[in-house]
Write a structure and sequence with these properties.
Blueprint lengths: L17 H7 L1 H4 L20 H14 L5 H8 L7 H21 L3 E3 L3 H9 L14 E3 L1 H19 L8 E6 L6 E5 L10 H15 L3 E2 L14 E2 L8 E8 L2 E8 L12 H18 L4 E7 L3 E4 L16 H13 L5 E8 L5 E3 L5 E3 L6 H16 L2 E7 L4 H14 L3 E3 L5 H16 L2
Parallel strand pairs: 8-9, 8-11, 11-14, 14-15
Antiparallel strand pairs: 1-2, 3-7, 4-7, 5-6, 9-10, 12-13
Helix pairs in contact: 3-5, 7-9, 7-13, 9-13, 10-11, 11-12
Length: about 450
């Protein structure tokens, strides 16, 4: 029996780095409603359909550098061959394999079809007919955590290597790493003894007192024998090593999810979410003693779980900055940390206010004096509570610049005027450098 051997060309799916592909799909997976900036961004899920995922993968394959030139040529074939229908089918099969692999790896999952379930419960027809809606998917917690890790790695790579796992301050404390001269032990210090200084103190004290102890021991043993000296170490002799004081920090990141965050031809909310995910991953992995909470502010304000950060979207909302600051202050007042701070990411002026009766007062035209005065009053309350506010402004309107600088002056915080492209670098650099600049 004769065998016919052919050249093994390999599987195109094997050439695709799935992690790299998911990273390139991050804008789509972290979508904030930018596809419908003039409508209700919370009402449409066009970017959560399998067709939208298909199109995003197709663009990544051809424009994102996921496949090499040789692989693309193998996939598309030669135009002169005329067998373009086969090439298109091969491309569709590859995209379907990628989607299946993303599901197997736990990056996405199919969304439950609740509309069909409701119709079935009513006894009406439904299901997978021609009138059925598009098939949708959901982003998993694993995918959001992975995107946070990738965002953190990319941001740290652009600003340089950081010290891992601690916030250094100007204060000295007793710890493990010795960075300064030893000091006498005091009650409450970490008992990280400095042996040489402790023994030297004991020897000097015993010489001053004119006494050493002679202790006899059996011949051939390691117990000190005649002529040996035992140094009697007393409490005042103890010296401990000093290290940098490593403080703990409680942070609330406030994200503006008003409608302006996706208007004017620019998506500002998706980069803000990406930075929040990176900051969450940084604190969880390198600063375990710190805490991070997330607050969304719009017509009102609400705290959300960190694992839901990647799923939130903007809406047809105004900007209730004071309510966001008030909620953040209440959260931080419960935190027993050395340092408490608010990281506020916004692009607009305060345009809403919650009245004492619960009604929301709104005014989107200019800086309303009533809203601004109440917002400054809440900033002052944060300052009295020892909470610093650092504002990252994604707009450059002169009135907004003056407002943000006034906020920074009241609470002795900082004002950063940045863009969606540099927001992450500013936030992480500020977070990692803050304590050496603010603890005295």
């Amino acid at each position: 029996m004769r065998y016919r051997y052919t050249k093994y060309t390999g599987d195109l799916l094997d050439e695709i780095d799935l992690d790299d592909l998911v990273s390139k799909l991050s804008d789509m997976l972290l979508s904030s409603g930018f596809r419908s900036p003039w409508g209700d961004p919370s009402a449409g899920d066009e970017d959560r359909t399998m067709q939208a995922l298909h199109d995003a993968i197709l663009e990544a394959l051809f424009s994102g550098g996921v496949l090499s030139e040789e692989a693309l040529q193998q996939l598309l074939g030669e135009p002169a061959d005329g067998d373009q229908e086969s090439a298109r089918q091969q491309l569709e099969d590859l995209i379907q394999q990628i989607i299946d692999r993303m599901m197997e790896e736990g990056f996405i999952t199919s969304a439950p079809d609740l509309d069909d379930e409701r119709e079935w419960r009513r006894g009406t027809s439904g299901g997978m007919g021609e009138d059925a809606g598009p098939v949708k998917f959901e982003v998993t917690d694993k995918a959001l955590d992975f995107l946070g890790y990738r965002a953190l790695r990319d941001l740290l790579g652009s600003i340089g290597r950081s010290s891992a796992g601690r916030h250094d301050t100007r204060h000295l404390s007793t710890g493990v790493e010795t960075v300064a001269a030893p000091k006498p032990y005091e009650f409450g210090d970490t008992l990280n003894l400095d042996p040489s200084s402790t023994i030297l103190n004991a020897v000097q004290r015993l010489h001053a007192e004119g006494r050493f102890l002679d202790v006899p021991g059996p011949a051939g043993s390691r117990i000190p024998g005649p002529g040996s000296r035992i140094i009697d170490v007393d409490y005042p002799d103890l010296m401990v090593a000093q290290s940098d004081y490593q403080s703990s920090c409680a942070t609330v990141i406030m994200l503006d999810c008003s409608h302006s965050m996706i208007l004017y031809g620019e998506d500002r909310f998706t980069p803000a979410k990406r930075v929040a995910l990176a900051l969450s991953h940084l604190i969880r992995t390198q600063y375990p003693g710190d805490s991070l909470h997330a607050v969304l502010f719009h017509d009102s304000a609400e705290e959300i779980p960190l694992k839901q950060l990647g799923r939130v979207r903007v809406g047809p909302y105004y900007t209730n900055t004071r309510e966001g600051l008030r909620l953040a202050r209440r959260i931080l007042e419960r935190q027993k940390k050395d340092m408490r701070q608010i990281v506020m990411v916004t692009d607009g002026k305060p345009s809403a206010l919650t009245r004492p009766d619960g009604q929301i007062y709104k005014n989107a035209f200019g800086l309303d004096p009533y809203i601004v005065a109440e917002t400054f009053a809440e900033v002052s309350a944060c300052q009295k509570a020892g909470i610093m506010i650092n504002t990252f402004m994604l707009a450059r309107d002169p009135d907004l610049v003056a407002f943000v600088r006034r906020v920074a002056a009241i609470c002795r915080g900082k004002a950063y005027f940045t863009t969606p492209y540099t927001l992450g670098q500013y936030v992480l650099m500020d977070y990692m450098d803050k304590k050496t600049k603010t603890i005295h």
